[in-house]
Every structure is written in C-alpha cells, then in structure tokens.
Write a structure and sequence with these properties.
Layout lengths: L9 E3 L3 H4 L6 E4 L4 H11 L4 E4 L8 H11 L7 E5 L1 H14 L3 E5 L11 E6 L2 E6 L7 E4 L9 H20 L5 H19 L6 H13 L5 H10 L5 H16 L4 H10 L11 H8 L3 H4 L8 H13 L5
Parallel strand pairs: 1-8, 2-3, 2-4, 4-5, 5-8
Antiparallel strand pairs: 6-7
Length: 316
Amino acid sequence: MWKILIPKKIAYGENAAKEFDYPDNALIITTTESKIYEKWIEYMGIKNYTIYDKVTPDPAIETIESIKAEFEGKNISCYIGLGGGSSMDVCKYLSKLTGIPKILIPTTFGTGAEMTTYAVISFDHKKKLLQDEAFLADAAIVDPYFLPGTPFNIMRNSACDAAAQASEGYDSKLANPLTKLFCKEAFDILEDAIINDKPELLPYGAMLSGIGFGNSSTTLGHALSYVFSNEGVPHGYALSSCTTVAHKFNNSQYTERFKKICQKLKFEPLKLKLPLDEAADVIMPDRGHLDNNPRDVSKEDIIKCLDEIVNSNPLA
C-alpha cells in the first residue's frame, strides 16, 4: 500500500503569498530581522498579527515550550512559519502541542519543510528528526517573491539541501513509484537551476522535493550531516560532502550528478572536532535515516564514511 500525504491546501506561484486570505490574530514565527520581515509582511498584506522573531537555526525544544507559554490564552488563530526550515519546524511542533492550525511559507527554498510530516528539533543540543502526521501544514504557500536578494550562502545551502533530499528520497527503502516520480522531477529541475544558473527554478524544485522525500525519507547523508550541524556547520553545507560520500557508499545513480552540483556551488571541505568513533556513536541511534538507507549501515561503515569526509576532499 502507498500512502501519500500533502498539505490540505497548496498555493504556488507569483503573488501566491500576496493573494492568500490570512486570518486575524495570527502569530508569525520567523528567524530573520525586522527590516526584512516587515517588508515581507507588507507584501503579504497580513493585518492584526503578532510577531515572534527569536527563533534560531536548529531550534531547541526549550524555545518551543517558551513560545507556547508566552502566547497561551491569547486566542492565536493560527501560526505562520515565515522563513527557513527552523521557523516552519517550530510552527509544526507548536501546532502539535496546541492544536492551533499552521500556515507554512518558505523564503529560502531548500528544506521542503512546508510539504512534509517531518520536523528537526534539538534536544540537549543534539538535532533529532521527528515524524508525525500532525506536523503536516494546513496550508503551504510557495511564492518566488522571496527569492531575489537571498544571500549567496543561504541560497547555495538551501539548493544543496533540496538536491540532497530529492536524491536520498529517491533511493530510500520507503520510496514508491509516486515518490520516485516527484524526487526525480525535483532533482532534474534543481540540477538545471544550479548547473545552468537558473535560480528562478529553485522554489518549484524544492517544493517537489519536499513532496517526494516527505513521503519516503532521507537516508545516510542526512544521518552523517547532523554531527557537523551539532558543531555549527550549516545544514546544506554539511550535506555537500556527507550526501556525496553517502551516495558513493550506496552506489546511487545520483553520485556524480550530486557531486557536480556541489562543485558548482563551491563548497569547502568539512572538519569535525568530535573523534570519529564518538561521532559514529552519535549517528548510530538515528534509525529514522539509517533504517531507510538502501544499504545496511554498520558503525564501521559510518567511521569509514566520516574518515573520507574529513580526511580527504570528496568534492575534489
């Protein structure tokens, strides 16, 4: 049996965020600064809202609990996650705790979080992948308006993230012909966008990637990446080498194509402070990624992959 879950409502395209009918008394959750989000909100035409702009990358469970306590009893009509994956993941978890609906609006076009039942939350300073149907957006809005002006590092990290998700999702044990269709189409579009300098294609590619991997899973590349993220490496940057090495380990059809994307984006080699054996111990409990990898993965395999990542340059 196949099971495909997507948001109840998806609005995509030019002016999608401007023309959407937002409820009053929404709580907008974002990671960015006021001079940026005020411009966004003016474009969107949202009225009678409250803003929470203290979300940080890789949000902690303590942040979510703090927001819940701060706004309890204030008759919030919905949460609006406006920004990257961190803002949207906070909305997802909050909505699960409170039952308040959520509207997810990506501005970086990489995580695909607006389309998925996944959230990444930090517990005790360690990122954890969570999956729950309650995390699915009540509405997802994908509008290319937010793309111009995105700093290069954010754009390349987001693009790498989307391409990693599409290719890992295609290879996942949980993939089916429909998810493979979305993942393949997403990767083809993202590859064209990156290799041929067509950034206007990134929002559509990232959206399709979110539908595809969101109904299968990411795999070894993401599992490897979290130990680097725990040391402050941006997620997309960490995936550049981690997914390249993971694809090689898995004999993926995407190995060389993904590597060429990362070379085009000019990612530098990764370094890791944690000893490789200890890092492998952190990665091994991540069954959500490892159990869905197309090949079985042992601790020794993880150590070898980490060694290749940090002691050679897999993107050379």
